[in-house]
Design goal:
heterotrimer; A mainly alpha; B alpha+beta; C alpha/beta; A: mainly alpha; two-stranded antiparallel ribbon; 19 helices; about 0% strand; B: alpha+beta; Arc Repressor Mutant, subunit A; SH3 type barrels; 3 domains; 11 helices; about 20% strand; globular
């Protein structure tokens, strides 16, 4: 008991004598030793020529080429993801929904499964899981390996270097450019990626604002609504372009909100957190392409996929159950959506959308299947499998219009899809990374409240 | 019709909010007493009538509250009221005042070393916390900080037993052309003056050389930069004058021209806490050589080559690393 | 009994013959090990590549400081011994306050690995020695793995491994882990230190100013008096002088537990 106290006392006394710069002197001493050892043990032949690293760096960080190269690479990655994903997506869709789905129904018939059980398993669980896989897996399997290749090459730190000035302006770190980009793939992955930011304040900012990156799970909804409602506003030959512009506009708006909230956070809630900047630019190393593709598939894509399945399957059951359980002849889902309708009205949305968002808390990609299934099951009492066919937007459009959807609904839903709480995986990841309920709550409530505020304001002024 | 009403509603709302924010909170009697003690400690004045008026004005205390506080202090034997109604601190009062000053300065040191608050905010935060921290808190804080002797502005921190180190030096405003020395203290009040010092990026610990002065201004160089300050502002900077400054002149790393190699002379006292430790870990130690490795397309940060590694630093950091070109 | 050959692994018929003799790569296995090895090093030195080369695991590594934040574990068998290996977060130092450094520091100090492999980048040895010298103050059973020797050769840098070993007082092995060069020698060195065949006499930090050296000595003597047999009293003294008084409490718990 007492011997430790003696030591602490002695240490205190010695510290008082040594003054404050003990740490400085210790590190200087270590480096002095290291310098001597290296002088004895390492020989250098200066070749005189500029190393290749430096030559490449001078180009990729130059005033003239730095930004064009960066945007060209980003565009290439996105283009490969969006265009490349179409083919495997269509193929998966054909396999899982075109071929397997009828087979499952046939099998259920042969096994004499009760219609309720068959409906729950096949129309509920299977259909939503199959939809999520065919829509989510291909872009993930393309985006993450490409991003990882750029990372392994050593190019990404240069992006952080080039863009740091922009991010410093809002109190953030240049590396946030990368965690934000990662967020376009998956917010949970983006939050984990913030580990590369070693300054506590800037890391928290990057974590809390990552949700403003429109993740892969939310793109399909944006594209669907933009195609149906925004594309219809202009002549047919321009509709594709208009829809595309609307989706990109939403993503850009997300970036704008990211900057705005970073700025606010760094000046208010986070201003007392420690901030210290440095950025190492490691030497370029040739990536080992196959190994990278393999590991990034393993590390990121499959984890994202697995999570989609374990959340999509139960959610599919849940959707089917709430739509089919009847209370006094009215489906449970209808009772809930009726109760939510007034709130939905204020936000320019409706009760079904809000219920879909509650069901889809586990995973954003469930919003579309939830909305479509709920609409169909509550109002039409058919399975409506054709709604999940790609290219069947006219049918979906008719269904939504029949149920009172307007341009306001579409615009506000697109905005609310951008501005709402992160999915439960991301929330859990944020909690694990920050270890703090306070910052997790902040990351959940900030976008949610912002989303409610903005949709209510838009609905209010729209109806004036 | 509607716009008028909207304006009125918005105006009322704004007024309410402003009122709530700006409402001067009534200070706890103990806090009033502690503030008065501190004031008396810092101002040794003979003018009895003037004192009360100045305290009222500078601390924003109403006459009735002041009178009550002074009575309480008299009863507690913190002050002694002399024949002409002049209040002086008793030994007990001095100890009490020193205790508050000690907490204030330790807390500023804590903010500087362990948090990311900007130095402009330190004083204000410490003003609040000096009334709240218990002696246990202070003891822990002191131990964590390693028993610092000076606060980040260069003011001595009283020890638990009330000992106070002396600051050697004279106000910058009193120096003349040709004088040189080192900045040992930068006063953070009044805020208007402090802001000017902050905007000039003058750092504590800098070696300075006075190159000229007029009736209203003083001109000096510090870390390779020439500053021009009004005398009233320069009064708030204390310089420890040293006649023999044979040390080679140092400049800031941020001023290193591309293509040149320089030797690190050290890290400024202005660089603290985790940032200081990180820079040391990265090899920014005296004697190391450094040069610019890469310029930035947007001008900041700049990448430096240090101990065979390319490390990018923002201008704020590079300002606090000193080199000999 | 005495005639029995020392074979602890039975299933070698099913496992492919490894290119490196005596090395049987295992997946993650945590029970029944003979030795625990810690893997430490600066960020971006190919530490995870060394880890993968030793264990045959395929942990993802990015060309980017700070990727491995959580502790990865693996295992391998060399000669007749089973080794458990732990990949610590890459750090520049062990003296600062970041989370990664705390994880690495606590593991080395309180996990007491049998061998600590310090992975260093041959092209920037001086910066890497900053961490290596700190680790040598904590543990006297270490191996320095000078990785990226191929890159160093390309840059015209020649590292005298024997001179390094002499100065540091621990075995030094040069590797190019990407191409599995030097891994057998590294395994041999780990084995020798773990089994006590090689005794280390690690370097102590020498260039401290006299008044600081004196304070460190006073304090470390006192620590040794009170915790006899402690291999790293100087390190504890450094931490105490840095103001980390909690270390005494932790030390006491460790001694009793």
């Amino acid at each position: 008991m007492n011997r430790e106290d003696d030591l602490v006392k002695l240490a205190r006394q010695l510290r008082w004598q040594l003054g404050e710069n003990f740490h400085d002197k210790l590190v200087e001493g270590i480096y002095a030793d290291a310098h001597q050892i290296v002088r004895d043990a390492v020989q250098r032949q200066e070749s005189g020529a500029t190393p290749l690293d430096i030559k490449i760096d001078r180009i990729v960080t130059s005033k003239r080429f730095g930004f064009p190269i960066m945007f060209a690479l980003l565009a290439l990655v996105l283009w490969l993801t969006v265009v490349g994903a179409n083919y495997p997506s269509a193929w998966l869709h054909e396999l899982l929904i075109g071929k397997l789905y009828p087979l499952l129904h046939a099998a259920a018939g042969r096994l004499h499964l009760s219609p309720g059980l068959a409906g729950m398993l096949i129309d509920g669980m299977y259909l939503s899981t199959a939809w999520v896989i065919s829509v989510m897996l291909p872009p993930m399997a393309i985006f993450f390996p490409l991003f990882t290749l750029l990372e392994d090459l050593g190019y990404l730190p240069r992006v952080a270097f080039n863009l740091d000035r922009v991010f410093r302006g809002v109190g953030a770190h240049g590396k946030q450019a990368l965690t934000m980009t990662m967020g376009f793939g998956c917010n949970a992955a983006g939050v984990i990626a913030t580990r590369i930011i070693d300054s506590p304040r800037e890391r928290l900012i990057a974590i809390i604002t990552n949700n403003f990156s429109l993740c892969n799970g939310r793109w399909p909804l944006q594209i669907l609504l933009a195609t149906i409602f925004i594309g219809a506003l202009v002549p047919a030959q321009w509709s594709g372009l208009a829809a595309m512009a609307a989706v990109v506009g939403i993503a850009m708006l997300g970036i704008a909100f990211m900057f705005l909230s970073s700025w606010l956070l760094s000046r208010t809630a986070l201003r007392g957190e420690v901030s210290s900047f440095h950025l190492e630019l490691p030497p370029y190393r040739p990536p080992r392409i196959w190994k990278t593709i393999y590991t990034s598939l393993m590390d990121r894509t499959l984890i994202v996929l697995w999570r989609a399945i374990i959340f999509a399957a139960p959610a599919g059951i849940l959707i089917w159950v709430v739509s089919n359980i009847q209370i006094h002849g009215v489906p449970l889902a209808a009772r809930i959506t009726d109760a939510l309708d007034p709130i939905g009205w204020w936000m320019g949305l409706n009760g079904i959308i809000l219920l879909a968002y509650i069901i889809a808390i586990p995973a954003n990609e469930l919003v579309i299947p939830a909305i479509l299934m709920l609409t169909v099951l509550i109002h039409h009492h058919t399975a409506g499998v054709t709604l999940f066919e790609p290219g069947q937007t006219t049918q979906v459009a008719t269904l939504l219009r029949q149920n009172g959807w307007t341009l306001l609904t579409a615009v506000n839903l697109m905005l609310f899809s951008l501005l709402h709480n992160p999915c439960s995986t991301t929330i859990y990841t944020i909690y694990k990374e920050t270890g703090s309920v306070k910052w997790t709550a902040m990351a959940v409530l900030l976008p949610l409240l912002l989303g409610i505020l903005i949709t209510v304001l838009i609905a209010f002024f729209w109806r004036l | 019709m509607r716009p008028v009403w909207t304006h009125i509603i918005i105006a009322l709302l704004a007024a309410t909010i402003t009122g709530l924010v700006l409402r001067r909170r009534r200070r706890h009697p103990r806090i009033v007493i502690e503030d008065i003690l501190k004031w008396l400690y810092h101002h040794d004045t003979d003018d009895a009538a003037g004192v009360a008026a100045r305290i009222r004005r500078e601390l924003g205390i109403r006459p009735r509250v002041l009178q009550k506080a002074l009575q309480a202090m008299e009863a507690e034997q913190l002050i002694h009221t002399g024949p002409k109604g002049r209040s002086t601190l008793t030994q007990k009062g001095r100890d009490y005042a020193l205790k508050i000053i000690r907490i204030h300065r330790l807390y500023e040191k804590y903010l500087a070393e362990k948090t990311g608050f900007h130095k402009r905010e330190w004083h204000h935060l410490a003003e609040k916390m000096e009334h709240r921290l218990s002696s246990d808190d202070v003891h822990t804080m002191e131990s964590v900080l390693g028993y610092p002797v000076f606060d980040p502005h260069g003011d001595p921190i009283p020890t638990a037993t009330g000992e106070l180190a002396a600051i050697p030096g004279r106000p910058l405003a009193e120096l003349h052309s040709g004088d040189s020395g080192q900045i040992v203290h930068i006063e953070d009040e009044p805020p208007a003056h402090y802001d000017q010092i902050l905007q000039a990026h003058i750092h504590i610990g800098s070696g300075i050389q006075v190159t000229g002065r007029t009736d209203s201004e003083i001109v000096f160089t510090a870390e390779g930069i020439t500053h021009r300050l009004p005398l009233a502002v320069a009064q708030n900077i204390t310089v420890h004058t040293k006649p023999d400054t044979d040390q080679p002149p140092v400049i800031r790393l941020s001023a290193l021209p591309p293509g040149q190699t320089a030797t690190i002379a050290g890290i400024s006292r202005e660089c603290r806490g985790q940032t200081r430790r990180r820079l040391l870990d990265l090899g920014f130690v005296p004697g190391a050589t450094v040069r610019i490795a890469l310029d930035n397309p947007l001008g900041d940060p700049i990448a430096y080559l240090i101990k065979d590694t390319v490390i990018a630093l923002r201008r704020d950091e590079a300002d606090k690393i000193l080199i000999t070109p | 009994m005495t005639g029995e050959p020392l074979h602890t692994t039975h299933d070698c018929a099913s496992c492919p013959q490894a290119t490196m003799a005596h090395l049987q790569k295992l997946g993650v296995e945590t029970r029944g090990f003979d030795f625990v090895v810690a893997l430490a090093g600066n960020p971006n030195t190919g530490k995870s590549t060394v880890f993968n080369a030793l264990t045959g695991l395929k942990q993802h590594t990015g060309n980017w400081p700070g990727k491995t934040v959580t502790r990865a574990e693996g295992a391998f068998v060399f000669k007749d011994k089973k080794f458990k290996i732990i990949d610590l977060p890459g750090t520049y130092s062990l003296l600062s306050t970041s989370k990664d450094e705390e994880v690495a520091r606590n593991f080395l100090l309180f996990g007491r690995p049998d061998v600590t492999v310090i992975v260093a980048d041959a092209t920037r040895l001086e910066r890497n020695l900053n961490l290596a010298l700190q680790i040598l103050e904590i543990t006297d059973r270490a191996v320095l793995c000078v990785n990226l020797m191929d890159e160093a050769r390309r840059h015209g840098i020649r590292v005298d491994l024997r001179a390094l070993a002499r100065r540091l007082g621990v075995p030094v092995v040069g590797t190019s882990a990407r191409y599995l060069q030097g891994i057998p020698e590294l395994l041999e060195a780990i084995y020798d230190v773990a089994t006590g065949k090689v005794r280390c006499k690690p370097h102590r930090i020498q260039s401290l100013p006299p008044h600081i050296e004196k304070a460190v000595r006073t304090l470390s003597q006192k620590i040794e008096q009170q915790f006899p047999g402690l291999p790293n009293s100087r390190w504890i003294a450094f931490r105490l002088l840095e103001g980390e008084t909690g270390i005494i409490e932790a030390l006491k718990n460790q001694m009793s537990g």
